[in-house]
From TrEMBL:
The lineage of its organism: Bacteria, Bacillati, Bacillota, Bacilli, Bacillales. Pfam families: Sacchrp_dh_C (PF16653), Sacchrp_dh_NADP (PF03435). Residues 5-136 form the Saccharopine dehydrogenase NADP binding domain. It comes from Lysinibacillus parviboronicapiens. It comes from the Bacteria. InterPro entries: NAD(P)-bd_dom_sf, Sacchrp_dh-like_C, Sacchrp_dh_NADP-bd. The keyword Oxidoreductase applies. Signal peptide: none annotated. This is Saccharopine dehydrogenase (NAD+, L-lysine-forming). Keywords: Oxidoreductase.
Length: 409
């Protein structure tokens, strides 16, 4: 059907490449591009020889002109951005300059400040409309599938949705004392930022990891979950009409949080530059360099993830609850594509989003979040491509009123 340029060569990009090659009827040709071309070449060597023709290229995704040159040389129908979120705008500019559709998995954030907002990318809406191009934002799992789950619930399960709790649980064990499951810099910036949730049209801010609950997850069991801010809260709160409250929760072990607190206390998680041996460095960059590469965790990680949405609202005038979720096994993911489940659950939806843009089902000029499209083809594709979803109409519920409730570790 067409050609895709995949920018990035980390754990998520590896899954995207594997899934594009599996889906060769849609992805006839792909080009894997990264600053480190040897990583791209390694993926090509591993997967070349099938129906999908694989190319590789070196590119500095911080440089718009380099991205433009590459797009012109390869001629893709869509760019799948699985590089760093700092590079979203650079790549979007390149897509506009070359007339190519755009897909990413995480919102732009400025390198110098931990900000998780869509405002910078939403500002491109008119440019993409005038160019007749589609920019699909956040086509990972969270953000991504969680938005599709919400749109599915709105279309098929509810007349009105009032409350949403997104729960992201990872019960995997990689055996290290401390490691992050995706890019350490992005992961730690996210966790150490203040929490926020949306209620009755306002954002309520909490201290980092201040709010904790215990939730009993299918196939994983009871886990400590902590309230965080996550970017899909912003888009879902905007796009789901009648919503009263939306929150995001993630699991962390006591061991993980203890290590993180020590690192934070000694300044290793800071993004403020310091002078070291005559050079200015961000401490978090040094920490990233000494931590295990998330892409190396696949063969070590055992256990499962469970990510889903607990939704409450009205159907036919009656109160209704609904829980839609996916369970993913780390070892099964590694056996299939050589990656752990965190990369898998992000990479598969990135391929699906790009597929739907390429085949026209999710093609509409402008800048869009996933929940603004028909969820049905995406939900069907999740079952086909390795992330089958499950549902419950009688789930365990979380306390709606945490504002004045003292929750602590």
């Amino acid at each position: 059907m067409g050609k895709a340029l995949i920018i990035g060569a980390g754990g998520v990009a590896s899954v995207v490449v594997h899934k594009c090659v599996q889906n060769s009827d849609v992805f006839e040709e792909i080009c894997i591009a990264s600053r480190t071309v040897s990583k791209c070449d390694a993926l090509k060597e591993k997967l070349d020889g099938g129906k999908t023709k694989i190319h590789t290229a070196q590119v500095d995704a911080d440089n718009t002109d380099e991205v433009i040159e590459l797009i012109k040389a390869f001629g893709p129908d869509v760019v799948i951005n699985v590089a760093l979120p700092y590079q979203d705008l650079t790549i979007m500019d390149a897509c506009l300059a070359t007339g190519v559709h755009y897909v990413d998995t995480a919102n732009y954030e400025p390198p110098e400040t931990a900000k998780f907002e869509y405002k910078w990318q939403w500002a491109y809406k008119e440019k993409f409309e005038k160019a007749g191009l589609t920019a699909l934002l956040g086509s990972g799992f969270d953000p991504g599938v969680t938005g599709v789950f919400t749109a599915h619930a709105q279309k098929h399960e509810f007349d009105e949705i009032h409350y949403i709790d997104i729960v992201d649980a990872n019960a995997g064990d990689h055996g290290y004392h401390f490691a992050t499951n995706f890019n350490p810099e992005i992961n730690i910036r996210e966790i150490t930022a203040n929490g926020r949730y949306w209620k009755e049209g306002e954002w309520i801010e909490t201290a980092p990891l201040e709010k904790k609950e215990v939730y009993n997850l299918p196939e994983i069991g009871p886990k400590d979950i902590y309230l965080l801010y996550h970017e899909e809260l912003e888009s879902i709160a905007k796009n789901i009409k009648g919503l009263k409250q939306i929150r995001f929760w993630m699991t962390f072990s006591e061991k993980y949080l203890t290590h993180l607190k020590v690192l934070e206390n000694v300044g290793m998680t800071s993004i403020e530059p310091i002078e070291f041996e005559g050079q200015m460095i961000q401490p978090i960059h040094f920490l990233k360099a000494v931590l295990p590469d998330p892409a190396s965790l696949g063969p070590r990680t055992k256990g499962k993830t469970n990510i889903g949405c607990i939704i409450r609202g009205l159907k036919d005038g009656k109160e209704k609850t609904y829980y839609v979720y996916n369970i993913c096994d780390h070892e099964e993911c590694y056996n299939e594509v050589g990656s752990q489940a965190i990369s898998y659950t992000t990479g598969v939806p990135a391929m699906i989003g790009a597929m739907l843009v390429m085949n026209g089902q999710w093609q509409k000029p402008g800048v869009w979040n996933v929940e603004e499209f028909d969820p049905d083809p995406f939900m069907d594709a999740l079952n086909k491509w390795g992330l089958p979803w499950q549902e419950s109409h009688n789930p365990e519920l979380l306390d709606l009123n945490v504002d004045n409730k003292e929750l602590s570790r």
